[in-house]
Amino acid sequence: MDTRRPARGIMPSVTDQQPAGRPPIRVLVADDHALFRRGLRTVLELDGDIVVVDEAEDGIAAVEKAEASVPDVVLMDVRMPRCGGIEACQAIKARVPSARIVMLTMSDAESDLFDAVRAGANGYVLKDVPGEEIAAGVRAVQDGDSLISPSMASKLLAEFALMRRRDTEVVGTVLPKLTEREVEVLGLVARGMGNREIGRMLFISENTVKNHVRNILEKLQLHTRMEAAMYAVRQNLINPPTG
Fold first, then answer.
1. Of 7, 83, 135, 178, which one is least surrounded by beta carbons within 10 A?
2. What is the C-alpha to C-alpha distance for residues 68 and 198, in angstroms, rounded to an integer?
């Protein structure tokens, strides 16, 4: 975890905190480095709205402890002994579908990022972000946002663009299942915007944005906002980077 001031990007604002009266967010931390787990626990629990319910030193332990504790959010490294984070992500999604999973890793490899998205991860964050920003990210993911380090966002959109070019399906009427407002929201989700930012841009409440996102995922039979971003790129709702 870095102590430098973060660059602007898709990571949430560090001022975002859990509203008063809500129960604390229950987090499972999975990483094979005990010192990192201990430091992350300290940072996450500073404000009192996040509690680390358990820790795991490898992927197998992460799956077992996720089943036992049913956390709201799992922060998990990609590369761990016995079972890696990608495989553990798939297993946790199958056994504890309510859990939101964020890969927190040193790996900036595109293959790890894409595998994490396919496994159902709700976010992919590099460990060089400040600790307080990770805490803000946990709150954002719990509220339904996706979470991705800015340096990885362009790689993700570039991959989606490649998938779109490879897609040979003939696209008919653009998104016949979605309303005009839902199409607008989907395009902004694909750009990495959180619910609050989308609400400000469209002059609607954050709760209204959440309802739109939930309806979009249900209509398109998708599970995560990152899957929705992939869909949006394939439907030409946004233009990914070409460089």
1. 7
2. 36
Q: What CA–CA distance (Å, rounded) separates 156 from 144?
A: 19
Q: Which residue reads 């509203």 in tokens?
A: 19
Task: Classify residue 243 by burial, with Cβ atoms within 10 Å: 0-12, 13-18, 19+.
Answer: exposed
Domains 25-153 and 167-234 share a fold: no
Q: What CA–CA distance (Å, rounded) separates 230 from 233?
A: 5
Residue with tokens 């803000």, as numbered in its chain: 136
CATH 3.40.50.150 fits 25-153, yes or no: no
Tens of pLDDT along the chain (243 residues) come to 553 433 333 455 444 555 556 899 999 999 999 999 999 999 999 988 999 999 999 999 999 999 999 999 999 999 999 899 999 999 999 999 999 999 998 988 878 888 888 888 888 888 888 888 899 889 988 988 877 766 676 666 555 555 555 554 444 445 557 888 998 898 888 777 888 889 999 999 999 999 999 898 888 888 788 778 777 766 766 655 444
Burial label for 43, CB within 10 Å (0-12, 13-18, 19+), is middle
Was domain 167-234 assigned CATH 3.30.70.20? no
- Whether the predicted model's global pTM rises above the 0.90 cut: no
Q: Which residue is associated with the tokens 């787990």?
A: 37
Residues 6+ apart with CB under 8 A from 15: 136
Domain boundaries, the chain: 25-153, 167-234
Strand ranges across the sheet with 100-105: 50-56, 25-30, 73-76, 100-105, 123-126, 147-148
